[in-house]
Predict the structure.
Amino acid sequence: MTQLFRSLIFVPGNNPRFLEKAKKIQADIVCFDLEDSVPDGEKVTARKLIKSALKSRNSYESSIFVRTNSPLSGKIPSDLKEIIQKGIDGIVIPKVNNTKELKKIEKIIVGLEKSRKLKSIQIIPSIESAEGVVNTYQIASSSKRVVAVVFGVFDLLNDLGVEYTKDAEGAKYSRGKIPVDARAAGVAAIDAIWQDLKDSKGLENDCKIGKSLGYSGKSIIHPDHISVIHKLFHPNKSEIEWAKKVCKTYLESKKQGKGATTIEGKMIDEVHFKQAKTLLELVK
């Protein structure tokens, strides 16, 4: 693993104040959103605001991802044209149903990386449909860029025609299958959002269930949830060993005057070093 996946927080891309406040958020991944939190009439504005925010990448301590619109929306090419630039670590793709959709998107990313001389950008597909659940392993293993998958419970239940409840029976099979498929593909699984901001006990219990199923962390919509989630999704042994390796290798590389290096074929830079150092300090 090249980073922690305990918390992925969505930040509305059309809100300049929230984008600015995100600089102080201590989530493992800050994800600027172009999808559900942004009305159709504000997509263009949101792209421009996110593009501007990415220019201040050094002001953000977390990994920076951007959630595009869905493959079926037809908006992804326009999203990628604006957001694929220096400063972005990866993208979250919502409502991925199959590998065919993912490959089309990856082809666009590769072209933009080459023309703009960028490092390889990570991908986190979001599984939010019955078809996506069935194809999770294929999606998770379809590219080396895929580092994790996200479980999107609300759209899944909508696809199934099931009303949302905090303990929805219709989501249990899917919630259990996704981390198994992700693990088999060698990537992390990030659990669904806990919607009730006032029910902290419910959040704690939901985190415990998610961890027992094999999730590495949780997607969230409010910073107040971060501390609870980080406490319950404590780093495991393999994550700790990886962090030690990252710190040792990066410091040795820095002594040689290099700003980045690789470990087991994976790119490691200042952001990964900070994350690894934070993890080890957390463990102490």
The mean pLDDT is 93. Residues 7-234 form a domain with the TIM Barrel fold (CATH 3.20.20.60).
